[in-house]
Design brief:
alpha/beta, eleven-stranded mixed sheet, 18 helices, 11 strands, about 550 residues
Length: about 550
């Protein structure tokens, strides 16, 4: 897995370029990455544009006109000319200086860009704030988090599909867009919001006392003004001084006595609440292109997206957004909603009325299935299915722990001695099975690898095989990379990504205690790749229906 010499010693970004009607264009996920690079003003990466297979012959023009003026693109690549790790995953992807650690997937790559920007310039508090409270913005993987799945996959995919066929059903709203509109209508829950909610109550009562609400007979307008006032000031103040609006005073005793449950709810200013985060960065290029298309083809549909339009306007007030957007060729402006169509528009109409018929509601499993060892075995017996357990094929096989380097020992993974001994027994079993089926030149993938207990042992004991560790937790993968570097291993690579983003060929897949449905995802991935698999299922939790899987799979077990 030796990286290209010209790309070593410097972090690299790989972004896709495709074509439409023989014209070069940037997919939304590439546009989002470029927008963040421009917003952060970072020069930490060498950027390589990757021409898709369909783009190689059909498009001869250079897409450089689509790129930010401040960005220096190093070169163009074809898929065949990519480093092996990048070739085996979906773009965008980022590779570190060593060439052995690759990060793939939109959310993972964006968070990495922010981290590198802060490392280069710790004073960039505006960039650090993009990661949100406790730096968790879009950290949960899409397989687990509905919100990450919506922002990382749902919205970009829906907009891409719309842009490919803008005239087909233009009046109908994609479900992902409707979901976002609903989300913006929900009350905001933020850390320590009690103080801001009391300030909002105080402003409301002050307005009522001055006769600006009941005196005018427009309580709804007053509520909107309060929201536009206090919440927006809080949001913009954080961008400047990282605090709630200055000039506010402590609430009077009457306000302090109000129960939290009786305080007014906070309204959305940005996608995740009051503050501008990475989620807004992801959504802006998508929503901008969608709104421009709708305004040109079906402007009446804009009346069903009032909160999204308000969000779009507020994002433009964030310092640096207009500059970065202009640098990326995005001309942000106020969307004009036609007034002529207001006549006859029912107040009871909502975005659900414009949903695509086949996607009007999210499909959820009808039956809730809960498994686990005992319930599953009981179900099998009730259906006259006998579970047969084969004897251990290598009962006495063991790794030579005493002669192995210390960095291979599980104790290097920061665990107790009791757990380390149990882990050594588990490694004996898995490594025995893998070494029995592995052949020189095989690629072995350790899914959900954690800190690399299995993968590192395999890389050391199978020097003629290529080992890839896939894990979505950066801290675990960095620790695994550090352990492998101590051993001087050259046949190992690391991929921080969701499991679905790995698309490369492999001969053997393995997983030790992949949590929840991750075990099922690994099994499915191996079957689709035609690969052998060695899997020890998760030791806790229950089998339950999820977005990707419903159980039981066999009709005779239901």
């Amino acid at each position: 897995m030796k990286p290209r010499e010209t790309e070593q010693q410097h972090p690299c970004l790989y972004l896709e370029v495709c074509s439409h009607n023989e014209e070069p264009r940037l997919p939304l996920h590439s546009s989002i990455v470029l927008f963040l690079l421009s917003y952060c003003k970072t020069k930490a990466f060498k950027v390589f544009l990757v021409r898709s297979h369909s783009n190689n012959e059909s498009c001869s023009e250079s897409p450089k006109d689509l790129l930010p003026e401040s960005l220096s693109v190093c070169d163009f690549r074809t898929p065949e000319g990519l480093p092996r790790l990048v070739r085996g995953c979906r773009l965008p992807a980022a590779v570190d200086e060593s060439g052995r650690l690759c990060r793939a997937g939109l959310a993972v790559v964006l968070r990495h860009i922010i981290t590198k920007t802060i490392e280069a310039d710790p004073s960039r508090r505006d960039v650090q704030a993009l990661l949100g409270f406790k730096k968790t913005c879009l950290k949960a993987c899409a397989e687990v988090s509905k919100w990450t799945r919506l922002c990382e996959l749902g919205i970009p995919s829906a907009v891409e599909e719309h842009l490919q066929n803008p005239t087909d059903q233009a009046q109908l709203l994609p479900p992902a867009i409707v979901t976002l509109e609903r989300r913006l209508a929900e009350p905001v829950k933020v850390h320590n919001d009690d103080k801001i909610r009391r300030q909002k109550l105080q402003e409301q009562r002050r307005r009522e006392k001055n006769g600006t609400s009941e005196g005018d007979g427009k309580p709804e307008l007053d509520s909107s003004q309060v929201s536009e006032g206090l919440e927006l000031r809080a949001a913009l103040a954080k961008l400047v001084v990282d605090s709630v609006p200055g000039g506010t005073t402590r609430e009077n005793s009457e306000i302090r006595k109000v129960k939290t449950t009786d305080l007014p709810e906070l309204e959305h200013v940005f996608a995740e609440g009051l503050y501008f985060t990475l989620t807004d960065v992801v959504l802006l290029p998508c929503i901008h292109q969608y709104l421009c298309s709708i305004q040109a083809r079906a402007p009446n549909a804009l009346h069903h997206l009032p909160r999204l339009l308000r969000w779009y306007g507020r994002v433009q007030e964030v310092p640096g957004v207009l500059r970065a957007a202009k640098d990326c060729g995005l001309i942000l402006s106020t969307v004009q909603v036609p007034t002529s169509s207001l006549t006859g528009l029912s107040q009871q109409e909502n975005p659900d009325d414009l949903l695509l018929p086949e996607e009007a509601q999210e499909v959820t499993p009808d039956l809730h299935f809960v498994g686990g060892p005992r319930p599953t075995m009981t179900k099998l017996k009730e259906n006259a299915i006998e579970a047969v357990f084969s004897p251990h094929p290598f009962p006495s096989w063991t790794l030579p722990w005493d002669s192995l380097p210390a960095a291979i020992n599980p104790t290097e993974g920061k665990m107790s001695n009791v757990r380390a001994i149990r882990k050594m027994h588990q490694l004996n079993n898995l490594v025995a099975m893998v070494t029995d089926v592995a052949r020189p030149g095989d690629t072995v993938v350790d899914f959900c690898s954690g800190t690399g207990h299995v993968g590192i042992v395999l890389a050391y004991t199978l020097p003629d095989c290529q080992i890839i560790l896939i894990e979505n937790k950066e801290e675990s993968l960095v620790r695994a990379q550090r352990r492998s570097a101590e051993l001087g291993l050259t046949n190992i690579g690391f991929l921080q990504a969701n499991l679905d983003y790995f698309t490369g060929p492999f001969q053997i897949g393995l997983a030790l205690h992949a949590c929840g449905i991750a075990t099922d995802m690994v099994l499915e991935h191996c079957i689709q790749a035609g690969a052998a698999f060695v899997i020890s299922p998760c030791c806790y939790g229950f089998i339950q229906n999820a977005v990707k899987f419903t159980f039981p799979k066999r009709s005779c077990s239901r």
